[in-house]
Protein: PLC-like phosphodiesterase
Amino acid sequence: MSPSITSLLCPILAACHVYAQESYSQLPSTAIPNGLLTPSGSYATNYDFGTTSNVSGSVGAINATTFTSTTASLIGITGVPGPSTLPSVTASTRSTTTRPSQPINTQPCNGYVEFCNRSLGNISMVVAHNSPFVIPRNAASNQALGVITQLNDGIRGLQFETQMPNDILRLCHTSCNLLDAGTLQAYLQKVAGWLAANPYEVIAIMMGNTDRVSPTNYIQPFEAAGLLPYLYTPTASTYSLDQWPTLAQMILSNKRVVVMLDYGANQEEVSWLLDQFRYQWQTPFSPTDTSFPCTAQRPPNQPEDVSRNKMYMLNHNLNIAITLNGNPGDAFLIPAYTLLNEVNADSGNTTTLGGNVANCTAMWNRPPNWLLVDYYNFGNFNGSVFQVAANANNVSYNRNSCCGTESNSGAKSANLMSTATLLLLNLLLLFSLW
Ligand SMILES: *[C@@H]1O[C@H](CO)[C@@H](O)[C@H](O)[C@H]1NC(C)=O
Ligand SMILES: *[C@@H]1O[C@H](CO)[C@@H](O)[C@H](O)[C@H]1NC(C)=O
Ligand SMILES: *[C@@H]1O[C@H](CO)[C@@H](O)[C@H](O)[C@H]1NC(C)=O
Ligand SMILES: *[C@@H]1O[C@H](CO)[C@@H](O)[C@H](O)[C@H]1NC(C)=O
Ligand SMILES: *[C@@H]1O[C@H](CO)[C@@H](O)[C@H](O)[C@H]1NC(C)=O
Ligand SMILES: *[C@@H]1O[C@H](CO)[C@@H](O)[C@H](O)[C@H]1NC(C)=O
Ligand SMILES: *[C@@H]1O[C@H](CO)[C@@H](O)[C@H](O)[C@H]1NC(C)=O
Ligand SMILES: *[C@@H]1O[C@H](CO)[C@@H](O)[C@H](O)[C@H]1NC(C)=O
Structure:
């Protein structure tokens, strides 16, 4: 392999080092079948709200016209106080406060009845690292299954990079000339379809603003995708843990999507686009250290007492550095596929997600809110990452509920490099891995 190919792929060495794991892809042109907008595959039955039994005498009933869902039967979250100011809560909610005994809620929120009355700041959820980059058996991918399958399986955080080469925000890595998975709007449309069909689910979208464009550029794709009605607007410019609403509050108001931007947010201009590091801190990003330190990396120099009282994300995706030409200076990072069974495992030393969450929990007195992983469907068993979250949340996990099979990526071909070059690179990468 000539060094010139590596230089071509990594025009900016620093960017290359962080993002190179995504930049060696030959992305297929895949039309998105309409059917993918509705839940499919072997997802948990407790996510299928159509099967949940009705509860007589329910309170806090959701006004069904709030939702555009055509598939889910809407049933009230019972026994959970709805915020009195919310227009979507029917009058019967308020009258329940005079009832002698509250009915027991049977409606799960994010898959669990126990979560309805919990603050978003008091729940651990699994985040798909680079959610849109979904090419099975390709050295460049970070996930095998597409966003709809991710959500059906229990992923509740969607993380990825955005770039704006020509006035349109796109899902690109390193450079849109090298890897382009389509527009942000097209991806968000899929998410919006899923939200409409799953009215009891709360998710977060965490974006990188690689080009540091003005936050107002994000309004159009979110609006055109139909996501604006779902977006949660915080009441303060920074939140400590207890300021987050409960899932029931978010579901009843239908403000079920928290959107964060790593750099360049301005909440006076775009109130729903949260300045990520004012609301959550993170452990080191893109680690190659198998011990995955639980230390705070971003924002830098945040006082420990502040960190203790804010949401945090554990970056638990392991990369290995490989070189094609023997020159360590040209090394780049790719996900460590061969170690996924260990890295995503539910228990073990701190290389495993389970072991690391236990260590971070001991260190910070509570589990991470967000568990960021590559290839979430692999582990010591399929769905072990969700077992880790369930353990952190003190709820049980149905091990038969993971995972779906659809790689509904909708990604487009890279357009700068020739197919032959990309195939060659992939072969080299795969050969060096397996
Ligand atoms: C649920 O119960 C309410 C009140 O009894 C009733 O009006 C409604 O039609 C029921 N919904 C379903 C889906 O059975
Ligand atoms: C539901 O909300 C719509 C729109 O706000 C309203 O027109 C309708 O009367 C409400 N229905 C109930 C049962 O509250
Ligand atoms: C919800 O949580 C609050 C505070 O944690 C508690 O006072 C209340 O009883 C809970 N309600 C239900 C229905 O669990
Ligand atoms: C929820 O809060 C309780 C009380 O602070 C804490 O013990 C528990 O670890 C928290 N769970 C999560 C998932 O944050
Ligand atoms: C965890 O154990 C594996 C082997 O079982 C080892 O390769 C790895 O280095 C260990 N990780 C740590 C952080 O000790
Ligand atoms: C837990 O994490 C801390 C901080 O990253 C580290 O210093 C410590 O060695 C870890 N504990 C274990 C048992 O690995
Ligand atoms: C998980 O599922 C995939 C298929 O999606 C399979 O190839 C893999 O071997 C399974 N097992 C584990 C332990 O991840
Ligand atoms: C975990 O849940 C069980 C009930 O399922 C409860 O008895 C126990 O106190 C909970 N533990 C914590 C730490 O919340």
